[in-house]
Amino acid sequence: MHNVDDNSLRSVELSLKMLTVFTQNELEQLLCLIYDPLSIIEILIMNTKLDKLSTVLDIVKPQVPYTEINDNRLSIEAIDELLRRYAEKTLDFDVITNPNPRLLRTPEHKLMQSLDSLNLDYDCHGFLMPDEVPLKEDWVPNSEVIECMRCQKVTFSMFNRRHHCRRCGRVICYNCSVHRMQVPSYGDILVRVCEDCYQQTMGSETSDPGDSMSTKSVINDFWLLSDDPEHNNIVREEFSYEHAPSVSLCLALMKYHSKTIEYPRFLLDQCKNMFELLLPSQEPTQEIDYFLVIKMLKSLTVAAKMSSIECNLPNGSSLADRILSQAELLSLLAERGCLNLLPITNTHNKEAYIDAPILRKLRDKLLEREQWNLALEVSTKAGLDNTGIFATWGKSCLKAGCLQLAREKFQRCLDRNIYSENLETATCEESTSNSVLKSRTMSRLSLLSICDCKPAKNPILLDEIINILESNMQNIDKEIIERADQQKLSGSVSTLNQSFNLSAQPDVAICILNKLKNLKSISAGQYCQPEHIKETNLNTPVMDKIFFDECVYYLTRYGSHLSLMEFYLRHGYFEKVLNYVLETQLSADIFIEIYMKCLKDGVINTFQEHMSIIDSSLEVWKVCNMF
Protein backbone atom coordinates (compact mmCIF):
# COMPACT_ATOMS: atom_id res chain seq x y z
CA MET A 1 0.00 0.00 0.00
CA HIS A 2 2.94 2.26 0.79
CA ASN A 3 4.31 1.69 -2.75
CA VAL A 4 0.96 2.56 -4.30
CA ASP A 5 0.87 5.84 -2.34
CA ASP A 6 4.39 6.64 -3.43
CA ASN A 7 3.46 6.02 -7.07
CA SER A 8 0.38 8.22 -6.74
CA LEU A 9 2.36 11.02 -5.17
CA ARG A 10 4.98 10.72 -7.86
CA SER A 11 2.26 10.94 -10.53
CA VAL A 12 0.76 14.02 -8.87
CA GLU A 13 4.19 15.64 -8.74
CA LEU A 14 4.80 15.02 -12.45
CA SER A 15 1.29 16.18 -13.39
CA LEU A 16 1.69 19.44 -11.47
CA LYS A 17 4.94 20.16 -13.29
CA MET A 18 3.28 19.46 -16.64
CA LEU A 19 0.26 21.63 -15.85
CA THR A 20 2.46 24.69 -15.50
CA VAL A 21 2.59 25.03 -19.31
CA PHE A 22 -1.21 25.19 -19.74
CA THR A 23 -3.59 28.16 -19.60
CA GLN A 24 -6.18 28.65 -16.88
CA ASN A 25 -9.04 27.38 -19.06
CA GLU A 26 -7.03 24.30 -19.99
CA LEU A 27 -6.19 23.63 -16.34
CA GLU A 28 -9.87 23.36 -15.48
CA GLN A 29 -10.25 20.54 -17.99
CA LEU A 30 -7.05 18.72 -17.02
CA LEU A 31 -7.13 18.84 -13.21
CA CYS A 32 -9.13 15.62 -13.14
CA LEU A 33 -6.08 13.85 -14.64
CA ILE A 34 -3.68 14.87 -11.90
CA TYR A 35 -3.17 11.20 -10.97
CA ASP A 36 -2.70 10.18 -14.60
CA PRO A 37 0.12 12.22 -16.22
CA LEU A 38 0.27 9.87 -19.22
CA SER A 39 -3.29 10.86 -20.18
CA ILE A 40 -2.26 14.53 -20.17
CA ILE A 41 0.47 13.67 -22.68
CA GLU A 42 -2.06 11.63 -24.67
CA ILE A 43 -4.42 14.62 -24.95
CA LEU A 44 -1.61 16.73 -26.40
CA ILE A 45 -0.83 14.00 -28.93
CA MET A 46 -4.49 13.54 -29.89
CA ASN A 47 -4.97 17.26 -30.49
CA THR A 48 -1.51 17.67 -32.13
CA LYS A 49 -0.36 20.30 -29.64
CA LEU A 50 3.23 19.51 -30.53
CA ASP A 51 4.81 22.67 -29.13
CA LYS A 52 3.32 22.03 -25.70
CA LEU A 53 4.11 18.33 -26.05
CA SER A 54 7.77 19.20 -26.60
CA THR A 55 7.82 21.45 -23.52
CA VAL A 56 6.05 18.85 -21.37
CA LEU A 57 8.39 16.04 -22.42
CA ASP A 58 11.44 18.22 -21.75
CA ILE A 59 10.13 18.63 -18.21
CA VAL A 60 9.08 15.01 -17.66
CA LYS A 61 11.67 12.81 -19.38
CA PRO A 62 14.63 13.66 -17.14
CA GLN A 63 12.52 12.66 -14.12
CA VAL A 64 11.01 9.37 -15.29
CA PRO A 65 12.84 6.02 -15.33
CA TYR A 66 13.47 3.55 -18.17
CA THR A 67 11.23 0.77 -16.90
CA GLU A 68 8.69 -1.62 -18.36
CA ILE A 69 5.27 -0.22 -19.15
CA ASN A 70 3.15 -0.07 -15.99
CA ASP A 71 -0.37 1.30 -15.69
CA ASN A 72 0.50 2.88 -12.36
CA ARG A 73 3.75 4.58 -13.34
CA LEU A 74 4.90 6.97 -16.01
CA SER A 75 7.98 5.71 -17.86
CA ILE A 76 9.96 6.44 -21.02
CA GLU A 77 8.73 3.15 -22.48
CA ALA A 78 5.11 4.10 -21.80
CA ILE A 79 5.57 7.45 -23.55
CA ASP A 80 7.27 5.75 -26.50
CA GLU A 81 4.47 3.20 -26.80
CA LEU A 82 1.91 6.01 -26.75
CA LEU A 83 3.78 7.88 -29.48
CA ARG A 84 3.95 4.76 -31.66
CA ARG A 85 0.25 4.03 -31.19
CA TYR A 86 -0.83 7.48 -32.37
CA ALA A 87 1.87 7.73 -35.04
CA GLU A 88 0.32 4.61 -36.55
CA LYS A 89 -3.06 6.35 -36.59
CA THR A 90 -1.56 9.22 -38.63
CA LEU A 91 -0.94 6.69 -41.43
CA ASP A 92 -4.47 5.30 -41.45
CA PHE A 93 -5.71 4.82 -45.03
CA ASP A 94 -9.49 4.86 -44.88
CA VAL A 95 -10.01 3.33 -48.32
CA ILE A 96 -11.74 0.24 -49.64
CA THR A 97 -9.34 -1.92 -51.64
CA ASN A 98 -12.04 -4.45 -52.62
CA PRO A 99 -15.19 -2.50 -53.57
CA ASN A 100 -18.36 -4.39 -54.34
CA PRO A 101 -18.60 -4.60 -58.18
CA ARG A 102 -22.34 -3.95 -58.14
CA LEU A 103 -21.68 -0.51 -56.62
CA LEU A 104 -19.56 0.66 -59.54
CA ARG A 105 -21.68 2.89 -61.73
CA THR A 106 -21.29 3.51 -65.43
CA PRO A 107 -20.21 6.95 -66.74
CA GLU A 108 -23.69 7.36 -68.27
CA HIS A 109 -25.32 6.87 -64.87
CA LYS A 110 -22.98 9.41 -63.28
CA LEU A 111 -23.72 11.93 -66.04
CA MET A 112 -27.48 11.59 -65.53
CA GLN A 113 -26.98 11.94 -61.78
CA SER A 114 -24.95 15.13 -62.31
CA LEU A 115 -27.67 16.60 -64.56
CA ASP A 116 -30.31 15.77 -61.96
CA SER A 117 -28.26 17.49 -59.28
CA LEU A 118 -28.27 20.70 -61.36
CA ASN A 119 -32.06 20.74 -61.60
CA LEU A 120 -33.08 19.39 -58.22
CA ASP A 121 -31.88 20.42 -54.78
CA TYR A 122 -31.34 17.71 -52.22
CA ASP A 123 -34.49 17.08 -50.24
CA CYS A 124 -33.40 16.79 -46.64
CA HIS A 125 -36.95 15.87 -45.65
CA GLY A 126 -36.71 12.64 -47.61
CA PHE A 127 -34.74 11.04 -44.77
CA LEU A 128 -36.15 10.33 -41.32
CA MET A 129 -33.81 9.81 -38.40
CA PRO A 130 -34.36 6.41 -36.72
CA ASP A 131 -36.05 6.41 -33.33
CA GLU A 132 -33.25 4.43 -31.69
CA VAL A 133 -29.51 5.02 -31.95
CA PRO A 134 -28.09 2.09 -33.95
CA LEU A 135 -25.34 -0.04 -32.49
CA LYS A 136 -21.97 0.08 -34.20
CA GLU A 137 -22.56 -3.41 -35.58
CA ASP A 138 -25.69 -2.09 -37.30
CA TRP A 139 -23.93 0.74 -39.12
CA VAL A 140 -23.80 0.65 -42.91
CA PRO A 141 -20.49 -1.10 -43.75
CA ASN A 142 -17.82 1.01 -45.44
CA SER A 143 -17.38 -1.61 -48.14
CA GLU A 144 -21.01 -1.20 -49.22
CA VAL A 145 -20.75 2.49 -50.05
CA ILE A 146 -18.61 4.34 -52.58
CA GLU A 147 -20.54 7.66 -52.54
CA CYS A 148 -21.92 9.82 -49.76
CA MET A 149 -25.32 8.44 -48.74
CA ARG A 150 -26.67 11.93 -48.08
CA CYS A 151 -25.61 14.20 -50.96
CA GLN A 152 -24.69 11.39 -53.38
CA LYS A 153 -22.22 13.79 -55.01
CA VAL A 154 -18.95 12.99 -53.27
CA THR A 155 -17.11 9.84 -54.29
CA PHE A 156 -14.99 8.50 -51.45
CA SER A 157 -11.22 8.38 -51.83
CA MET A 158 -8.04 9.03 -49.87
CA PHE A 159 -8.98 12.72 -49.76
CA ASN A 160 -12.76 12.34 -49.41
CA ARG A 161 -12.86 10.08 -46.39
CA ARG A 162 -15.81 8.07 -45.12
CA HIS A 163 -17.51 9.15 -41.92
CA HIS A 164 -20.30 7.43 -40.00
CA CYS A 165 -23.16 9.36 -38.51
CA ARG A 166 -23.43 8.13 -34.90
CA ARG A 167 -27.15 8.90 -34.85
CA CYS A 168 -28.33 7.03 -37.98
CA GLY A 169 -25.32 4.87 -38.98
CA ARG A 170 -25.10 6.12 -42.56
CA VAL A 171 -21.79 6.65 -44.36
CA ILE A 172 -21.42 10.32 -45.23
CA CYS A 173 -18.77 12.75 -46.47
CA TYR A 174 -17.05 15.48 -44.48
CA ASN A 175 -19.26 18.30 -45.81
CA CYS A 176 -22.38 16.42 -44.73
CA SER A 177 -21.06 15.77 -41.20
CA VAL A 178 -19.59 19.04 -39.95
CA HIS A 179 -21.79 19.06 -36.83
CA ARG A 180 -21.21 17.26 -33.56
CA MET A 181 -23.63 16.74 -30.74
CA GLN A 182 -24.34 14.49 -27.80
CA VAL A 183 -25.93 11.21 -28.73
CA PRO A 184 -27.38 8.66 -26.29
CA SER A 185 -24.97 5.79 -25.51
CA TYR A 186 -21.97 8.13 -26.02
CA GLY A 187 -22.30 9.98 -22.71
CA ASP A 188 -21.27 13.63 -22.72
CA ILE A 189 -18.97 13.21 -25.73
CA LEU A 190 -19.71 15.27 -28.81
CA VAL A 191 -19.80 12.83 -31.71
CA ARG A 192 -20.07 13.27 -35.47
CA VAL A 193 -23.58 13.36 -36.93
CA CYS A 194 -24.94 14.03 -40.40
CA GLU A 195 -26.71 17.26 -41.34
CA ASP A 196 -30.12 15.54 -41.43
CA CYS A 197 -29.87 14.07 -37.94
CA TYR A 198 -28.50 17.33 -36.56
CA GLN A 199 -31.34 19.41 -38.03
CA GLN A 200 -34.02 16.94 -36.95
CA THR A 201 -32.58 16.81 -33.42
CA MET A 202 -31.82 20.47 -32.86
CA GLY A 203 -34.81 21.85 -34.77
CA SER A 204 -34.91 25.53 -35.68
CA GLU A 205 -34.17 26.83 -32.15
CA THR A 206 -30.87 28.71 -32.38
CA SER A 207 -30.93 29.71 -28.71
CA ASP A 208 -31.13 26.15 -27.43
CA PRO A 209 -28.38 25.27 -24.89
CA GLY A 210 -27.55 22.30 -27.05
CA ASP A 211 -26.41 24.70 -29.78
CA SER A 212 -23.65 26.08 -27.57
CA MET A 213 -22.82 22.55 -26.51
CA SER A 214 -22.44 21.54 -30.15
CA THR A 215 -19.81 24.26 -30.65
CA LYS A 216 -17.76 23.26 -27.64
CA SER A 217 -15.12 21.66 -29.84
CA VAL A 218 -14.55 25.00 -31.58
CA ILE A 219 -13.52 26.88 -28.42
CA ASN A 220 -11.70 24.10 -26.58
CA ASP A 221 -9.75 20.96 -27.39
CA PHE A 222 -12.23 18.48 -28.68
CA TRP A 223 -10.47 15.26 -27.75
CA LEU A 224 -10.56 15.28 -23.96
CA LEU A 225 -9.96 12.50 -21.46
CA SER A 226 -11.22 12.36 -17.88
CA ASP A 227 -10.92 10.25 -14.77
CA ASP A 228 -13.82 8.12 -16.02
CA PRO A 229 -12.42 4.94 -17.71
CA GLU A 230 -15.63 4.32 -19.67
CA HIS A 231 -15.59 7.87 -21.02
CA ASN A 232 -11.94 7.49 -22.04
CA ASN A 233 -12.62 4.21 -23.84
CA ILE A 234 -15.32 5.87 -25.95
CA VAL A 235 -13.05 8.83 -26.78
CA ARG A 236 -10.19 6.55 -27.84
CA GLU A 237 -12.54 4.45 -29.94
CA GLU A 238 -13.95 7.54 -31.67
CA PHE A 239 -10.58 9.17 -32.22
CA SER A 240 -9.02 9.64 -35.65
CA TYR A 241 -6.78 12.25 -37.22
CA GLU A 242 -8.78 14.43 -39.58
CA HIS A 243 -5.95 14.78 -42.11
CA ALA A 244 -4.64 11.22 -42.09
CA PRO A 245 -2.71 9.77 -43.79
CA SER A 246 0.16 12.16 -43.14
CA VAL A 247 3.82 11.12 -43.10
CA SER A 248 4.87 14.55 -41.87
CA LEU A 249 2.62 14.24 -38.81
CA CYS A 250 3.87 10.70 -38.18
CA LEU A 251 7.50 11.80 -38.23
CA ALA A 252 6.66 14.89 -36.16
CA LEU A 253 5.28 12.64 -33.41
CA MET A 254 8.11 10.11 -33.68
CA LYS A 255 10.62 12.93 -33.22
CA TYR A 256 9.83 12.72 -29.51
CA HIS A 257 10.43 8.95 -29.41
CA SER A 258 13.54 7.64 -27.65
CA LYS A 259 16.40 6.71 -29.96
CA THR A 260 16.06 2.96 -29.45
CA ILE A 261 15.75 0.18 -32.05
CA GLU A 262 11.98 0.35 -31.59
CA TYR A 263 12.04 3.67 -33.42
CA PRO A 264 13.36 2.44 -36.83
CA ARG A 265 11.61 -0.90 -36.40
CA PHE A 266 8.25 0.88 -36.13
CA LEU A 267 8.96 3.00 -39.23
CA LEU A 268 9.97 -0.06 -41.24
CA ASP A 269 6.78 -1.85 -40.19
CA GLN A 270 4.74 1.12 -41.39
CA CYS A 271 6.68 1.10 -44.67
CA LYS A 272 5.75 -2.54 -45.11
CA ASN A 273 2.06 -1.81 -44.44
CA MET A 274 2.10 1.05 -46.94
CA PHE A 275 3.89 -1.11 -49.50
CA GLU A 276 1.20 -3.80 -49.17
CA LEU A 277 -1.39 -1.16 -50.02
CA LEU A 278 0.34 -0.64 -53.37
CA LEU A 279 0.39 -4.33 -54.25
CA PRO A 280 -2.99 -5.13 -55.83
CA SER A 281 -5.01 -7.92 -54.30
CA GLN A 282 -7.27 -7.28 -57.30
CA GLU A 283 -7.43 -4.60 -60.00
CA PRO A 284 -6.12 -1.22 -58.70
CA THR A 285 -8.87 0.85 -57.11
CA GLN A 286 -9.63 4.48 -57.93
CA GLU A 287 -9.86 5.32 -54.23
CA ILE A 288 -6.07 5.19 -53.87
CA ASP A 289 -3.83 7.93 -55.21
CA TYR A 290 -0.90 5.68 -56.07
CA PHE A 291 1.44 8.57 -56.93
CA LEU A 292 0.88 10.13 -53.52
CA VAL A 293 1.23 6.84 -51.65
CA ILE A 294 4.52 6.09 -53.43
CA LYS A 295 5.87 9.54 -52.50
CA MET A 296 4.77 8.97 -48.91
CA LEU A 297 6.43 5.55 -48.93
CA LYS A 298 9.72 7.00 -50.18
CA SER A 299 9.72 9.74 -47.52
CA LEU A 300 8.93 7.30 -44.75
CA THR A 301 11.55 4.81 -45.97
CA VAL A 302 14.30 7.45 -46.09
CA ALA A 303 13.44 8.39 -42.50
CA ALA A 304 13.49 4.70 -41.53
CA LYS A 305 16.91 4.27 -43.13
CA MET A 306 18.40 7.27 -41.31
CA SER A 307 16.97 6.17 -37.98
CA SER A 308 18.22 2.60 -38.56
CA ILE A 309 21.75 3.93 -38.97
CA GLU A 310 21.38 6.23 -35.96
CA CYS A 311 19.93 3.52 -33.71
CA ASN A 312 22.13 0.68 -35.06
CA LEU A 313 19.22 -1.55 -36.08
CA PRO A 314 20.70 -4.72 -37.66
CA ASN A 315 19.77 -5.03 -41.37
CA GLY A 316 17.51 -1.98 -41.05
CA SER A 317 19.40 0.08 -43.61
CA SER A 318 19.52 -2.75 -46.18
CA LEU A 319 15.80 -3.40 -45.74
CA ALA A 320 15.08 0.29 -46.28
CA ASP A 321 17.20 0.23 -49.46
CA ARG A 322 15.18 -2.72 -50.72
CA ILE A 323 11.91 -0.89 -50.10
CA LEU A 324 13.25 2.23 -51.83
CA SER A 325 14.33 0.21 -54.85
CA GLN A 326 10.92 -1.40 -55.19
CA ALA A 327 9.18 1.94 -54.59
CA GLU A 328 11.14 3.32 -57.56
CA LEU A 329 9.88 0.40 -59.63
CA LEU A 330 6.27 1.05 -58.59
CA SER A 331 6.74 4.75 -59.35
CA LEU A 332 7.96 3.84 -62.83
CA LEU A 333 4.89 1.67 -63.44
CA ALA A 334 2.54 4.34 -62.10
CA GLU A 335 4.05 7.03 -64.36
CA ARG A 336 3.48 4.83 -67.43
CA GLY A 337 -0.04 3.86 -66.35
CA CYS A 338 0.95 0.19 -66.07
CA LEU A 339 0.52 -0.39 -62.35
CA ASN A 340 -2.54 -2.51 -63.15
CA LEU A 341 -0.25 -4.98 -64.95
CA LEU A 342 1.39 -5.94 -61.66
CA PRO A 343 0.30 -9.54 -60.94
CA ILE A 344 -2.25 -9.92 -58.18
CA THR A 345 -0.47 -11.00 -55.01
CA ASN A 346 -1.45 -13.46 -52.32
CA THR A 347 -2.52 -11.39 -49.33
CA HIS A 348 -1.82 -14.31 -46.98
CA ASN A 349 1.83 -14.37 -47.99
CA LYS A 350 4.03 -12.93 -45.25
CA GLU A 351 6.56 -11.74 -47.82
CA ALA A 352 5.12 -8.41 -48.90
CA TYR A 353 7.77 -7.45 -51.40
CA ILE A 354 7.94 -8.01 -55.16
CA ASP A 355 9.98 -11.13 -55.80
CA ALA A 356 11.60 -12.44 -58.99
CA PRO A 357 8.62 -14.57 -60.18
CA ILE A 358 6.28 -11.56 -59.93
CA LEU A 359 8.77 -9.41 -61.86
CA ARG A 360 9.04 -12.03 -64.61
CA LYS A 361 5.24 -12.13 -64.96
CA LEU A 362 5.18 -8.34 -65.06
CA ARG A 363 7.88 -8.27 -67.73
CA ASP A 364 5.95 -10.79 -69.84
CA LYS A 365 2.77 -8.70 -69.60
CA LEU A 366 4.69 -5.61 -70.68
CA LEU A 367 6.05 -7.51 -73.66
CA GLU A 368 2.52 -8.59 -74.62
CA ARG A 369 1.54 -4.91 -74.69
CA GLU A 370 4.74 -4.00 -76.57
CA GLN A 371 5.93 -1.75 -73.75
CA TRP A 372 9.52 -2.44 -74.76
CA ASN A 373 11.38 0.34 -72.98
CA LEU A 374 9.42 -0.12 -69.77
CA ALA A 375 10.03 -3.88 -69.87
CA LEU A 376 13.76 -3.16 -70.23
CA GLU A 377 13.74 -0.76 -67.28
CA VAL A 378 11.83 -3.24 -65.11
CA SER A 379 14.14 -6.07 -66.12
CA THR A 380 17.25 -3.97 -65.45
CA LYS A 381 16.04 -2.80 -62.04
CA ALA A 382 15.16 -6.39 -61.13
CA GLY A 383 18.49 -7.76 -62.36
CA LEU A 384 16.83 -10.04 -64.93
CA ASP A 385 18.30 -11.08 -68.28
CA ASN A 386 17.36 -8.67 -71.09
CA THR A 387 18.07 -11.09 -73.95
CA GLY A 388 14.48 -12.28 -74.24
CA ILE A 389 13.19 -8.69 -74.38
CA PHE A 390 15.46 -7.77 -77.29
CA ALA A 391 14.53 -11.01 -79.10
CA THR A 392 10.78 -10.35 -78.78
CA TRP A 393 11.25 -6.69 -79.66
CA GLY A 394 13.30 -7.61 -82.74
CA LYS A 395 10.71 -10.12 -84.00
CA SER A 396 7.97 -7.53 -83.61
CA CYS A 397 10.03 -5.01 -85.62
CA LEU A 398 10.72 -7.64 -88.26
CA LYS A 399 7.03 -8.44 -88.73
CA ALA A 400 6.23 -4.74 -89.09
CA GLY A 401 9.03 -4.27 -91.62
CA CYS A 402 11.32 -2.12 -89.44
CA LEU A 403 14.35 -3.99 -90.73
CA GLN A 404 17.11 -1.69 -89.50
CA LEU A 405 15.62 -1.49 -86.02
CA ALA A 406 15.25 -5.27 -85.94
CA ARG A 407 18.95 -5.65 -86.74
CA GLU A 408 19.86 -3.41 -83.82
CA LYS A 409 17.73 -5.46 -81.40
CA PHE A 410 18.98 -8.86 -82.61
CA GLN A 411 22.58 -7.66 -82.27
CA ARG A 412 22.04 -7.67 -78.52
CA CYS A 413 20.90 -11.27 -78.30
CA LEU A 414 22.75 -13.10 -81.10
CA ASP A 415 26.47 -13.89 -81.12
CA ARG A 416 28.13 -12.56 -84.24
CA ASN A 417 30.57 -15.13 -85.62
CA ILE A 418 34.11 -14.17 -86.63
CA TYR A 419 33.52 -15.48 -90.15
CA SER A 420 31.15 -12.64 -91.07
CA GLU A 421 33.73 -10.01 -90.13
CA ASN A 422 36.46 -11.66 -92.18
CA LEU A 423 34.07 -12.20 -95.09
CA GLU A 424 33.47 -8.46 -95.23
CA THR A 425 37.23 -7.80 -95.19
CA ALA A 426 37.86 -10.38 -97.89
CA THR A 427 35.09 -8.92 -100.05
CA CYS A 428 36.68 -5.47 -99.83
CA GLU A 429 40.05 -6.91 -100.85
CA GLU A 430 38.44 -8.70 -103.77
CA SER A 431 36.76 -5.55 -105.03
CA THR A 432 40.05 -3.62 -105.09
CA SER A 433 42.02 -6.32 -106.92
CA ASN A 434 42.26 -6.55 -110.72
CA SER A 435 43.03 -10.24 -110.70
CA VAL A 436 40.17 -12.64 -110.06
CA LEU A 437 42.61 -15.42 -109.28
CA LYS A 438 44.55 -13.22 -106.85
CA SER A 439 41.38 -12.11 -105.08
CA ARG A 440 40.17 -15.68 -104.74
CA THR A 441 43.55 -16.73 -103.35
CA MET A 442 43.51 -13.86 -100.86
CA SER A 443 39.97 -14.73 -99.86
CA ARG A 444 40.92 -18.35 -99.28
CA LEU A 445 43.97 -17.41 -97.23
CA SER A 446 41.97 -15.01 -95.07
CA LEU A 447 39.08 -17.42 -94.59
CA LEU A 448 41.06 -20.60 -94.14
CA SER A 449 41.87 -19.93 -90.52
CA ILE A 450 38.35 -18.98 -89.53
CA CYS A 451 36.09 -21.23 -91.57
CA ASP A 452 35.51 -23.36 -88.51
CA CYS A 453 34.28 -20.40 -86.45
CA LYS A 454 30.78 -20.67 -87.86
CA PRO A 455 28.35 -22.53 -85.61
CA ALA A 456 27.57 -26.12 -86.51
CA LYS A 457 23.87 -25.43 -85.98
CA ASN A 458 21.74 -22.32 -86.16
CA PRO A 459 20.48 -20.73 -82.92
CA ILE A 460 16.75 -21.25 -82.38
CA LEU A 461 16.17 -17.49 -82.59
CA LEU A 462 17.87 -17.33 -85.99
CA ASP A 463 15.57 -20.04 -87.35
CA GLU A 464 12.59 -18.00 -86.11
CA ILE A 465 13.95 -14.89 -87.84
CA ILE A 466 14.39 -16.70 -91.17
CA ASN A 467 10.91 -18.23 -90.85
CA ILE A 468 9.38 -14.76 -90.33
CA LEU A 469 11.18 -13.35 -93.37
CA GLU A 470 10.46 -16.31 -95.65
CA SER A 471 6.79 -16.37 -94.69
CA ASN A 472 6.43 -12.75 -95.80
CA MET A 473 5.28 -13.02 -99.41
CA GLN A 474 4.56 -9.32 -99.89
CA ASN A 475 5.93 -7.50 -102.91
CA ILE A 476 7.02 -4.17 -101.49
CA ASP A 477 6.16 -1.15 -103.61
CA LYS A 478 9.16 0.74 -105.00
CA GLU A 479 7.86 4.05 -103.65
CA ILE A 480 7.86 2.68 -100.12
CA ILE A 481 11.42 1.35 -100.48
CA GLU A 482 12.56 4.73 -101.83
CA ARG A 483 10.81 6.47 -98.97
CA ALA A 484 12.57 4.20 -96.48
CA ASP A 485 15.94 4.89 -98.11
CA GLN A 486 15.33 8.66 -98.00
CA GLN A 487 14.39 8.57 -94.34
CA LYS A 488 17.45 6.46 -93.56
CA LEU A 489 19.64 9.01 -95.38
CA SER A 490 18.00 12.00 -93.67
CA GLY A 491 18.40 10.24 -90.32
CA SER A 492 22.12 9.81 -90.95
CA VAL A 493 22.55 13.51 -91.87
CA SER A 494 20.53 14.57 -88.83
CA THR A 495 22.70 12.41 -86.60
CA LEU A 496 25.86 14.07 -87.97
CA ASN A 497 24.47 17.59 -87.54
CA GLN A 498 22.93 16.98 -84.13
CA SER A 499 25.16 14.46 -82.46
CA PHE A 500 24.10 15.71 -79.05
CA ASN A 501 20.54 14.54 -79.62
CA LEU A 502 20.21 10.99 -78.33
CA SER A 503 16.73 10.37 -79.77
CA ALA A 504 16.88 7.85 -82.63
CA GLN A 505 15.15 8.37 -85.96
CA PRO A 506 12.11 6.09 -86.31
CA ASP A 507 12.52 3.21 -88.73
CA VAL A 508 10.03 2.85 -91.59
CA ALA A 509 7.61 -0.06 -91.12
CA ILE A 510 7.60 -1.07 -94.77
CA CYS A 511 5.25 -4.06 -94.33
CA ILE A 512 2.58 -1.97 -92.64
CA LEU A 513 2.96 0.88 -95.13
CA ASN A 514 2.77 -1.56 -98.03
CA LYS A 515 -0.48 -3.08 -96.72
CA LEU A 516 -1.96 0.37 -96.17
CA LYS A 517 -1.06 1.39 -99.71
CA ASN A 518 -2.66 -1.79 -101.06
CA LEU A 519 -5.83 -1.02 -99.10
CA LYS A 520 -5.89 2.51 -100.50
CA SER A 521 -5.50 1.12 -104.02
CA ILE A 522 -8.34 -1.34 -103.48
CA SER A 523 -10.59 1.38 -102.03
CA ALA A 524 -9.81 3.46 -105.14
CA GLY A 525 -10.88 0.56 -107.37
CA GLN A 526 -7.36 -0.48 -108.42
CA TYR A 527 -7.36 -4.25 -108.15
CA CYS A 528 -4.40 -5.00 -110.46
CA GLN A 529 -0.77 -5.05 -109.43
CA PRO A 530 1.53 -2.34 -110.81
CA GLU A 531 3.59 -3.32 -113.85
CA HIS A 532 6.92 -3.27 -112.04
CA ILE A 533 5.60 -5.82 -109.52
CA LYS A 534 4.27 -8.07 -112.29
CA GLU A 535 7.66 -8.04 -114.00
CA THR A 536 9.42 -8.78 -110.74
CA ASN A 537 7.21 -11.80 -110.16
CA LEU A 538 8.21 -13.26 -113.54
CA ASN A 539 11.97 -12.81 -113.27
CA THR A 540 12.79 -13.37 -109.60
CA PRO A 541 11.75 -15.73 -106.80
CA VAL A 542 8.47 -15.09 -105.01
CA MET A 543 10.35 -13.71 -102.04
CA ASP A 544 10.93 -9.97 -102.32
CA LYS A 545 14.58 -8.98 -102.73
CA ILE A 546 14.56 -6.79 -99.63
CA PHE A 547 13.56 -9.78 -97.46
CA PHE A 548 15.91 -12.10 -99.36
CA ASP A 549 18.83 -9.79 -98.58
CA GLU A 550 17.82 -9.70 -94.92
CA CYS A 551 17.91 -13.51 -94.76
CA VAL A 552 21.39 -13.54 -96.29
CA TYR A 553 22.48 -10.88 -93.79
CA TYR A 554 21.34 -12.88 -90.75
CA LEU A 555 22.56 -16.26 -92.03
CA THR A 556 25.96 -14.86 -92.99
CA ARG A 557 26.34 -13.03 -89.71
CA TYR A 558 24.93 -15.54 -87.23
CA GLY A 559 24.20 -18.84 -89.02
CA SER A 560 26.01 -22.01 -90.06
CA HIS A 561 27.54 -22.72 -93.49
CA LEU A 562 24.93 -25.37 -94.20
CA SER A 563 21.94 -23.14 -93.33
CA LEU A 564 23.08 -20.40 -95.72
CA MET A 565 23.60 -22.84 -98.59
CA GLU A 566 20.26 -24.55 -97.95
CA PHE A 567 18.61 -21.13 -98.07
CA TYR A 568 20.23 -20.44 -101.47
CA LEU A 569 19.04 -23.84 -102.72
CA ARG A 570 15.44 -23.22 -101.57
CA HIS A 571 15.36 -20.12 -103.72
CA GLY A 572 17.20 -21.58 -106.74
CA TYR A 573 20.57 -19.81 -106.37
CA PHE A 574 22.81 -22.77 -107.28
CA GLU A 575 25.67 -20.57 -108.46
CA LYS A 576 25.79 -18.77 -105.10
CA VAL A 577 26.00 -22.14 -103.32
CA LEU A 578 28.92 -23.31 -105.45
CA ASN A 579 30.82 -20.01 -105.19
CA TYR A 580 30.34 -20.08 -101.43
CA VAL A 581 31.81 -23.60 -101.28
CA LEU A 582 34.90 -22.47 -103.20
CA GLU A 583 35.43 -19.24 -101.30
CA THR A 584 35.10 -20.75 -97.84
CA GLN A 585 36.90 -24.03 -98.73
CA LEU A 586 34.27 -26.10 -96.98
CA SER A 587 34.96 -29.68 -96.04
CA ALA A 588 33.95 -32.56 -98.30
CA ASP A 589 31.34 -33.65 -95.74
CA ILE A 590 29.37 -30.40 -96.09
CA PHE A 591 29.68 -30.46 -99.90
CA ILE A 592 28.43 -34.06 -100.01
CA GLU A 593 25.52 -33.11 -97.72
CA ILE A 594 24.52 -30.33 -100.13
CA TYR A 595 24.95 -32.68 -103.09
CA MET A 596 22.71 -35.32 -101.47
CA LYS A 597 20.07 -32.70 -100.68
CA CYS A 598 19.96 -31.70 -104.37
CA LEU A 599 19.67 -35.37 -105.28
CA LYS A 600 16.82 -35.82 -102.82
CA ASP A 601 14.99 -32.68 -104.03
CA GLY A 602 15.32 -33.73 -107.69
CA VAL A 603 17.46 -30.78 -108.76
CA ILE A 604 20.79 -32.62 -109.13
CA ASN A 605 20.94 -32.06 -112.90
CA THR A 606 20.63 -28.30 -112.48
CA PHE A 607 23.23 -28.40 -109.73
CA GLN A 608 25.69 -30.32 -111.94
CA GLU A 609 25.10 -27.91 -114.83
CA HIS A 610 26.17 -24.99 -112.64
CA MET A 611 29.21 -26.97 -111.51
CA SER A 612 30.19 -27.39 -115.16
CA ILE A 613 29.64 -23.68 -115.88
CA ILE A 614 32.18 -22.77 -113.21
CA ASP A 615 34.68 -25.41 -114.40
CA SER A 616 33.84 -27.64 -117.37
CA SER A 617 36.61 -30.08 -116.40
CA LEU A 618 35.25 -30.29 -112.83
CA GLU A 619 38.85 -30.30 -111.60
CA VAL A 620 38.12 -27.50 -109.15
CA TRP A 621 35.64 -29.72 -107.32
CA LYS A 622 38.28 -32.39 -106.83
CA VAL A 623 40.46 -29.78 -105.14
CA CYS A 624 37.46 -28.72 -103.07
CA ASN A 625 36.96 -32.25 -101.79
CA MET A 626 40.55 -32.27 -100.53
CA PHE A 627 39.84 -29.58 -97.94
TrEMBL record:
Gene3D superfamilies: Zinc/RING finger domain, C3HC4 (zinc finger) (3.30.40.10). Pfam families: FYVE. The keyword Metal-binding applies. Keywords: Metal-binding, Zinc, Zinc-finger. GO terms for cellular component: centrosome; lysosomal membrane; midbody. It comes from Callosobruchus maculatus. GO terms for biological process: double-strand break repair via homologous recombination; mitotic cytokinesis; regulation of cytokinesis. InterPro entries: ZFYVE26, Znf_FYVE, Znf_FYVE-rel, Znf_FYVE_PHD, Znf_RING/FYVE/PHD. PANTHER family: ZINC FINGER FYVE DOMAIN-CONTAINING PROTEIN 26 (PTHR46591:SF1). This is FYVE-type domain-containing protein. GO terms for molecular function: phosphatidylinositol-3-phosphate binding; zinc ion binding. PROSITE patterns: ZF_FYVE (PS50178). The lineage of its organism: Eukaryota, Metazoa, Ecdysozoa, Arthropoda, Hexapoda. Signal peptide: none annotated. Residues 142-202 form the FYVE-type domain.
